[in-house]
Design brief:
about 280 residues; alpha/beta; five-stranded parallel β-sheet; two-stranded antiparallel ribbon; 12 helices; elongated
């Protein structure tokens, strides 16, 4: 079972090695990188490439680790007991299976995505240590132990918003998705916009990397944002000459696809003003 990439996802050699190493070691693959560099999409493409079902657990700031295992709905059981419902005699009627339970009880191997784990409380990763390591957990309300029938491929993503505990990191195979260089980004663009004119792409990517490398930028535009920007350029049927900023502005055409806050827009306006003052 080897991941070699897909026609819809450009995977670098080191990323392929990381995925296959995690599968071989039967360890969770922890993927970090800038937002928009394809971390979540990686899990979907691994599932597609290996022909496996996928279970997605998207983490929020309020998510608790227990929710990934199961939740006991005591309120509904109390209400049903007051109404004389026969369901109340079987506690299993009030157990809601979480994403880990679903992955553990699957008949065959699945890909389990735990997306943006760094959004949750700092204790969240520690609370999942034993379950991810042993691939089992205990249901106290029913007295049963849920064990993985087939060990799933676990892919965990993080935007690096907070540090993860060392004990958790020891149990993972780690990979950082670096921002793609020009050659890799060209291949990614070709997947999304096949047949794009080479000169337009060259001019657009030159401008894009200049924006990313501008000192003082609060949020650098990501891979997904340059894909959106190029989609707009193609929709407007622009050619390379159209991309040249007008009136002394340094802002790119349709810059709202690339610059996502007013501080960064103001930065380019100040740079343009300073440039005009030096002439």
């Amino acid at each position: 079972m080897q991941f070699t990439g897909t026609k819809d996802y450009v995977a670098t050699e080191d990323l392929k090695v990381a995925v296959n190493a995690a599968v071989t070691l039967e360890r969770p693959l922890l993927v970090k990188g800038e937002p928009g560099t394809g971390k979540t999409e990686l899990a979907k493409q691994v599932a597609a490439a290996l022909g496996l079902p996928m279970i997605e657990w998207h983490i929020k700031s309020t998510t608790k680790a227990q929710q990934g295992l199961y939740e006991y709905d005591a309120v509904s059981r109390l209400r049903d007991s007051q109404l004389g419902d026969e369901r109340v005699h079987d506690v299993k009627n009030y157990i809601r299976k979480g994403k880990l339970w679903q992955a553990f009880e699957a008949e065959g191997k699945v890909v389990l995505l735990i997306d943006e784990i760094d959004k949750a409380d700092i204790e969240f990763p520690n609370d999942l240590l034993q379950e991810l390591d042993r691939m089992e957990f205990h249901v106290y309300e029913t007295g049963e132990t849920i064990r993985a029938r087939v060990r799933p491929i676990v892919i965990i993503t993080s935007n690096n918003e907070k540090e993860l505990p060392d004990a958790f990191l020891r149990r993972c195979f780690f990979h950082y998705i670096r921002f793609p260089d020009t050659d890799v980004l060209r291949k990614i663009v070709e997947v999304h916009h096949p047949g794009i004119k080479k000169q337009l792409l060259t001019t657009a990517l030159t401008q894009f990397y200049e924006i990313r490398e501008t000192p003082g930028l609060k949020k650098k535009p990501s891979t997904s944002e340059v894909i959106d920007w190029l989609k707009l350029l193609l929709a407007e049927d622009m050619d390379p000459a159209d991309l040249k900023p007008e009136g002394g502005s340094l802002l790119p055409k349709l810059h709202g696809a690339l610059l996502k806050n007013e501080q960064d827009v103001a930065l380019f306006e100040r740079l343009a003003f300073m440039s005009r003052g030096k002439r």
